[in-house]
Amino acid sequence: MITLSSTKEETRKTCKIIRYSPWLVHFNTGACNGCDIEVLASITPLYDPERFGVKLAPSIRHGDILVVTGAVTKKSGERLRRLYDQMPNPKFVVAVGACAVDGGVFYKSYSVEGGADKAVPVAMYIPGCPPRPEAILDGIVKLLKKLETGDEKNE
Amino acid sequence: MSSRLDFLSSFTIETLVVKPGRKTYVVKPEDLRSVFSKMIEVLGDSSFYVSTIIGTDLKDEGRIRLDYYVVILPEEETIVLRTFIPRDNPSIDSLIDLIPGVLPGECETHDLLGVVFKGNPFLKRGFFVPSDIVEQGKYPLRKDSGV
Amino acid sequence: MGISKIIEVPLALELPVGPQHPALHEPVLLKAYADGEEIVKVEINTGYNHRGIEKLCEKNSFYRDIFIVARVCGICNLVHADCYVRAVEHILGMEISNRAKYLRVLAMELERLHSHMLINAVMAENIGFENLFMNIMLDREKIMKAKEILTGNRVLSDYVMVGGVRRDIDGVKKEKIKDIVLKTEERIKYYKKVFEEDTTILKRLVDVGKVSASDVVKHSLVGPVARASGVKIDSRSSDKYDAYGEIPFNVITRSEGDSWARMMVRWDEALESIKIALHILDHLPSDANPVPDEKKLPRKIPAGEAYTRVEAQRGELTYYVMSDGKLPNPYRVKIRTPSFNNIISSGFMYVGYTIADLPVILTSLDPCISCMERVTIVDIDKNVSYRLPFKELAKGI
Amino acid sequence: MRKPKLLKLAFENLVSKPATIQYPYEPTVIEPDFRGRHYADLNKCTGCSLCSIECPADTIKMTPIPQDYEVPKSNPRKIYPLINYGRCVFCYRCITVCPFNAYVSTNEYRLADPAKNDSSELSLSTLKKIVKEG
After folding, report:
1. Transmembrane region positions (chain C) (predicted)?
2. Which of A29, B41, C97, C140 would give a disulfide with C117, using CB separation of 3.0 to 4.6 Å?
């Protein structure tokens, strides 16, 4: 399974495939839909991510970047793992919003796992509650830039 | 408006006011169904709706309090029907056949507080409370649930 | 061994509209059992979005709860915070200045505006009108800018505090918000005309998901869903909370009761909100400083209970807060959101329509799954000839 | 014949300015009082930890100030609030409740980072390092 931190050469070669047209798949694992409408707003013509080739993929099989919003509730945690396995390689996860990064205000609740990194390996964290559409695009562009340099450390 | 509701006085044990200004009638749990069927009879079934059912676990009094918030339609006035049921095996008869609108309230009170509504076929445990809490057989909103 | 039972097994298609679906932005699983094209039964299966907020509210203090409660739903966060804060103010018996009341109503009306534009855009996207979706979202960005000017954050505005609001507004901000709202007014009039004349929208929306007035009241549906069927309920005009007593506005009702009527009620309410916002910007009283000093707010909350109602974008939202006077935490916080009633008892609306109508009817109810996440729902078959799909046969009757 | 209205609209869009803001190259307008990154100014902070009690997401941890920093006398316990930006919800409750107004707030919103960062180097930058003699 080629992930970020396998051999540097391999990562750079595979990531060249998706560097110019990374397709997003958005999954809401129990969020307050504040981050979802910001992800939705960042797809609209005002910020126009299609300049970077960023588009919402129709199904998970075509997705390259999995945008996770929301404090991962226990029940949707299994769906998140299943979704992550269904994605073709190379795949990256972007955690959008304070809930997806570390659980936000709900991290002490009984039905919340708190944070997407407890279910799937996360490549980029975008804090903010909710992060502005520019911050989401900025995070994705930073992820793309990091793929070019390929100096990837964390798994 | 209060003239139409004076049939309630025959059932109520005591009346009080929930801030700001909601008249509350404390009724016995057994004749809750008759209160609602009388209400349908007097007011008609499309001139009031049950807004919400609030279950509160009064641990030190050993009782569970169920409040039925009813909105009387033409003037949109909210009144409260309050009943108390014992805490160890709380059960009350359901109103699902009289008023279909109570389904969400009853399912939630059952799943979060453990109140059994006799006659409601749709009660299921554990679709929204995560499965590990269900196995432990805990009700999250109970004060001693330790969740 | 005689034949004891004949089971008539039609091929019933079980279509799971899964928790991850391009049309749905939130995790809910709709299991629609359809015979051919016609939907026989819908099982709405939730649990993916439950965060245990009511138990969490009991573990945190009254003031920390304001920020937890505001994160129940991102689109109607200010309405949640305002309703909770008014409940605490009733328990404390605290009066707030007139200016703070006007500012709260202004912020809530801006939020209603952008929420109605969003749900109409998502409806246009679900019936395939991609271009209209992009245009409405483009104009909605201006309203988000106005909300950012007023409250400091685009979506989650954390604007309400016990005793008033957290930011005041000066002349420059008032002018900026005013011309944004005026510019949006003609755009909304234009979109309303598009929704009235465009043939694709009319074909997909008219006579889909029809609900009669008596059904609305029996299933206690609230908000634009009820007002589109002629039931005149609006917490703003009945409870007259905050500053709604002094502001002239009228409640919009229609009588058709189908998805198209629900969308038109939302457009009319958006125009109504613009009228309210402009009225507030012209008649903003300046009697006292609306910003309370958060360092001197009372720590101990006396024993008591309060039940407040507010008109959220999707309907009547009620909060019940009870404090036992000993702990700084509330004893019980009960949140009943409009989508809780609208979505859960809406299983009967889908029966009889085609599969293609499923997303249209669901979107016309303006589903806010993060609001709704309290309980599970089970299949409700309402006087429909019971057909046995394969799956249930396998499970054994 | 209602069709010409569409032609008028199409022509209008043809000549009108594109609506897209070239975001990374052309910065979007951010309000000066937008709630962005914030950190504690350790010259005013007295380590009373009221902000970490009031924070709704418990992201503020009172951590001891490292040895090689000059600590002002007003901070006897030598601790300072460390904000973990990963879980912070930017509600500015800490800023409004701080009795000494010791928080500096900016409207910086680009916080995306491969690792979860916190406010340590920003807060410590407000203090002077002790110059090691010899």
Report:
1. none
2. C140
In a domain, D19, yes or no: no
Q: Does C324 touch chain B (CB under 8 A)?
A: no
ω before B86 within 30° of 0 (cis)?
no
Domain ranges of chain C: 13-48+342-390, 97-297
* Residues D6-25: tens digit of each pLDDT: 677 777 778 877 777 777 77
Which domain CATH number covers B14?
3.30.460.80
What is the ipTM, given to two decimal places? Answer: 0.88
| Helix (H) or strand (E) segment spanning residue B53 | strand B48-58
pLDDT band at C307 (very low <50, low <70, confident <90, very high): very high
Is B96 part of a structural domain of the chain? yes
Rounded to an integer, the average pLDDT of B112-133 is 81
Tell me whether residues B133 and A111 touch, CB distance under 8 A: yes
Asked if C370 contacts C26 with a C-beta cutoff of 8 angstroms, the reply is yes
The pTM of the whole model exceeds 0.90 = no
Give tens-digit pLDDT for C355-384. Answer: 788 778 888 888 776 665 533 233 333 323
List the beta strands (DSSP E) in chain C: 13-17, 29-35, 38-45, 160-161, 164-165, 304-312, 315-323, 332-336
Distance CA C157, CA D52 (A): 21
Confirm or reject CATH 3.40.50.12280 for domain A21-144, answering yes or no.
yes
- Per-chain mean pLDDT for chain A: 81
Q: How many domains does chain D have?
A: 1
Rounded-to-integer distance, Cα D95 and Cα D92, Å = 5
CB contact under 8 A, C153 and D34: yes
In chain A, residues 96-125 whose CB comes closer than 8 Å to chain B: 110-111
Q: Is residue B6 part of a domain?
A: yes
| Contact assignment for C71 to D19 by CB distance below 8 Å | no
Residue at B49 is within a domain: yes
